[in-house]
Design goal:
Elements (H helix, E strand, L loop, with lengths): L1 H8 L22 E6 L5 E7 L9 H11 L9 E6 L16 E6 L6 H12 L4 E5 L7 H4 L5 E5 L5 H14 L6 E7 L2 H9 L4 E4 L16 H13 L5 H8 L3 H11 L13 H21 L7 H24 L6 H9 L2 H5 L3 H6 L5 H9 L5 H9 L5 H11 L3 H21 L2
Parallel strand pairs: 2-3, 3-4, 4-5, 5-6, 6-7, 7-8
Antiparallel strand pairs: 1-2, 1-8
Length: 427
Amino acid sequence: MFSSLKNLFGKSANDGADSAPAASSRAIPFLGREPVFDRSGRIAGHLFRLPASNTVEDPDRLLLHALVASRADLQQNPAFVPISSASLDAPELDRLPGGQIVLLLHLAPDAEAGSIGDAMARLREREYRFGVFRQPRNLAFAKVIQQVDYAAIDIAGSEPNSVRDFSSAVRAGVQGDPIQLFACNIDTLDEHQLCLQWHFDYCHGHFVDHAAIASSAPAGDPHKTQLLNLLHLVQGDADTAELAKAMRLDPVLSFRILRYLNSPALALTRRIDSLEQAVTILGRQKLARWLAVLLFSVREPQLSDWLLIENALTRGRLMEVLGAQSLPGGHHDPLFLTGIFSCLDRLLRRPLADILQAMPVADAIRQALLEHQGPYASLLAVAEASEATDQNRMAEAARQAGVDAESVNRALLAATAWASEMTEYWE
């Protein structure tokens, strides 16, 4: 946690972006990253796969190669990686940090339970975990499911009765440690509710796209209004005393800032006890960054809130990391703010132009957000495209920004890990 605190304000835009691995003759695709939700509606991990528009002869090896090339550091939440059981001997698996990777296995037609068990045992020494997709007609399925940590089913490709029966069978018939149920490719909110009723532990799919933005930030929300007012003051001409006075109106904000400055992560030589000292030490750019992050803290977040929070934080951090490469020199806080602010319209349920009209943001930020022009626009397009599953859109956005797939994948994984840490911190 302290590393995430330090990285919120420290000179860390290059984190995860340096020391690229040696180039490979195999082309690197853009990673598709999709959220996985737990039963409480919180993001509990991500599923990684190649976007649908990517057609290759050996997608498993290419997916694993992309994870290796991006120097995947997946220590915060599980990374679910669907592959064929025939790919368990892929050499790339020996180069990945297995600790938080869950390999979701599609059993090959000629799969043999004994061989799969041996391969899984070897990879468990590297701390990999395993799941298997429902394939009752495969001769190896009955034995393999006894050896995995997750039992998965493709909701979009299954009849409701099959989903219900699969849940019952797993919970009743698997010996040893309990297996967690994973529902993949859920398309609707009704399907999601049924999966919760049928005891699924993890849910993945586009159902969240249909969830209405929870009414946690209605017009007139005093907490959000106060944070926006402070952002206006920070980016305007207010002096330190005026900023400290405004901050005192939000006790939660004051507590969090003082707690951060006095944390072991910063190791300051003296204790900071006043908001005037806090403003001086942070500086305006870092204070604006803190306020932008706190705008997305939700007291009782719902399903779609968690997705919005992660998208905003990931956009900001991804733009910052990529900016260290494509826009070297100078501060990259404006890039971070651009990514964060690009989600303000969904958070506040107001047109972005109206929000920015009352906020004295830099011209380059305003241009990127409202006109899709200026020095930050191309990186914002990359950040927005990273939430889609379109390989062609990602490729074009990256080309316009002058960055390659390896750099984008590496920045995306670093930003995902950072966003996960930050959401844990403010709770």
